[in-house]
From TrEMBL:
Molecular functions per Gene Ontology: DNA-binding transcription factor activity; transcription cis-regulatory region binding
HTH tetR-type domain boundaries: 10-70
Organism: Yoonia vestfoldensis
Residue spans binding DNA: 33-52
UniProt protein name: HTH-type transcriptional repressor KstR2
UniProt superkingdom: Bacteria
UniProt keyword list: DNA-binding
InterPro entries, sorted: Homeodomain-like_sf (IPR009057), HTH-type_TetR-like_transc_reg (IPR050109), HTH_TetR (IPR001647), KstR2_TetR_C (IPR041490), Tet_transcr_reg_TetR-rel_C_sf (IPR036271)
Amino acid sequence: MARKQGSHSDITGPRVQDTALRLIARHGYAAVSMRQIAAEVGVQAGALYNYTPDKQSLLFDLMRAHMQDVLDALAAADLQGDPPARLDGFTRFHIRFHLPRSDQVFVSYMELRNLAPENFAILESMRREYETALENILRDGVAAGIFAVPDTRIATMAIIAMLTGLSHWYREGGRLGMDAIEEIYCNLVQKSVRR
């Protein structure tokens, strides 16, 4: 059978990833079939296996790529200053990085339960690395007597959950612009940890 037009691996591979991400974000991992992904991409179902061994690998690759992008961008952000300045920097980084990637954020948080144990362990390690960056800021602030946080791990998880939640409800063109919302979130985060 002749190859379909536009099915070159450098074009079709990313289309498979983008389509799978969009469908999983909209319908959930369990409800999306490989046949459905193939139909959306415009290839035969069997052709998907040229790009991924199975649906589990596809989900894992999507989630791992997102977490690697987060970690790489955080490393490049180079948060400097005292703990409050670094906390503001982390808050702004998290919002700016995650907000335009609502599908990736949704899949990365809501589909963890569908990962095979070995894949979950890898993602959990990557997430822990990201969380540790924030926890270190909080610990430094506590050590400096600036922050009053009884448990830095719990505070880390609470702050990340609050920041990530923004991508679930924020819509461009709403009552407040992104800059105003970012300021509000920085203020909320600072007040939640300050003495």
